[in-house]
């Protein structure tokens, strides 16, 4: 091999082994090379700095490479460098200079080299949002590249064409090109391009509506880039888009901001910074942070304008207008701006055009300009019959608003039903309960519209159906999971070990920052693995059958609290009918509930008895806000309370009207009905678990072991997570005395402390069937996070879809010593044949009449129907 051919091989090497190519290029320049070889070396260093480092340094190398190519009197060499320089200039925001470099490159190049220049100009057209021009240059380049047998550049051209097709919404064409490109990549050693192909397939999966596959492929691409030491700015842009579609906007905002900070530190590509700012603006808008969204979008608009990227600038303007509207701004000027953006996006062929038309229609409606609103909403409504789920839901939202403006209640309900059906099909393609829960936020507006119409119609039964239509849908079906996922199991085991070591170090007073960093890394790994799981099939599962619900209630009542326009409405179900009563403002009820929680925390400690009357008075105020006149209509029978997510921490047994009765709580009427109809396992065994570090040592467990002869008792080293899970699977009754921790930031990492580390909600999701009845005797085990539209995530909700018909758990800190007599009295009732709710009622009544024990009894609730 000659020295010349070796130097020329550095150009393909920069994408196969970027670090190695950079080192060899520096060696070449250190050996006094001729102008041609020096030109190649400077071009390699320019490409490395352009893609992975400082653009200012990249431009210096590439200009030097261009000058050396001219000295070498090689027209093709000069054309190739001009193309690389053109890409760098465009990424630096110097679009006019970049396009001029391409003009010279196309003119100087011939044959195969000219085709490569055309490909790179096509890439630049895509960056700038000129999709038709990009497709035209690829069309001209591809036959020449194929004819030359240039598999690498042919695969790149196919990948680029597929990416342009995706931007225009032509998913099928994109998939065909990605598939053809991947076959070619398998024959090359271009590891960077292979990673890019995986990333592109992830984008195609997302555009096809397969979010789990998109997340899996993007994670795989990130692993490949990491091995090459390659920054992943474009990958971050794409992952932000997928995360937002999955309802994880705060996570997307964090990722985008981190990538922007890194770009700023290294002086990276201005084009990528603008795209990341746009991603951050979209994420902030979705997360409800209008101020941040406005700030990020405004900067993105300015950058895109300076870069002459009209396609991107128009998309950023859409987000900027949305953010301003979210901040409360309404004006005729904003209607005109949104309409102009919609027209421009439609001319570009952008899938975002209906969203802009819907925005224009919303603003016009708010201003009372019904004719303008109808015109814009009619355009947006066209998207309801095709495209991605988000586009179809945009269309149905527009159709619902049209129907409301026209006074057609029936039309509103039909549009809401159809739009939520689209969401249900999309949601059930997600296997992870976390993603299913967050995805429901996309249907919040449709469900709220339907509730408002049902309230206006004065039909309590219909309001009940629509309240159930969007609440606790995650509990309608268990999370999907593969039969075995060794990587997930390994990640859970490693997480548990690190968490146990960190906890031990904290107890000893030793610093744990390294362990905490590793714990966070493993959490991300476990979360990623669960998000990759795909749902079994589309569909929403069972709809609530009100007649069946009323039959199953028997002599009991179910109180479903629906929130419409910020006010609580009580739907009293039972005795063959559904009645509605008006409660108070939700915001006041939430504030009062927080006040009660603070009171219960104080009462968990001796010496706070003086606060008991204050807590009881707050319970009466809560009753007035939450139950209204319904409190006087309850009668003597058992009651099921179905609160909205915002009120899941209310200690319902504290309310005077509920204090002395058989009371259970359920996330939805549908989940209560499923629990009521769940059959206990045949010959279900009893499992008693005692975790480490309890103040009382789990004193109730030995007594319960005597009461339940033959029960499986797991304590000390036997109380390790794998053994505990194996025994819990399919049990009839389980009692877990273990420290509980609630994670508001990541509720499925809420945990019970076992001998070998935390037993988390993700662990429970691996059970084939969770225990029919389960009692969690420690603090905060009933705490849940309200996410999505009206979904709840935590330990209790991890159990309910998996076969558990009833749970007893605490929603507040409790006094460990006072828990022991409560638990013993509870189990006394169970062994006498009572259900959980009835046994808990009797156990409260049997407690000593002091503040600590009363507060302990109020903190516990029975969930479900067993």
TrEMBL record:
Top-level taxon of origin: Bacteria
Annotated SUPFAM superfamilies: TPR-like
Domain CHAT: 622-864
Protein name in UniProt: CHAT domain-containing protein
Pfam families in alphabetical order: CHAT
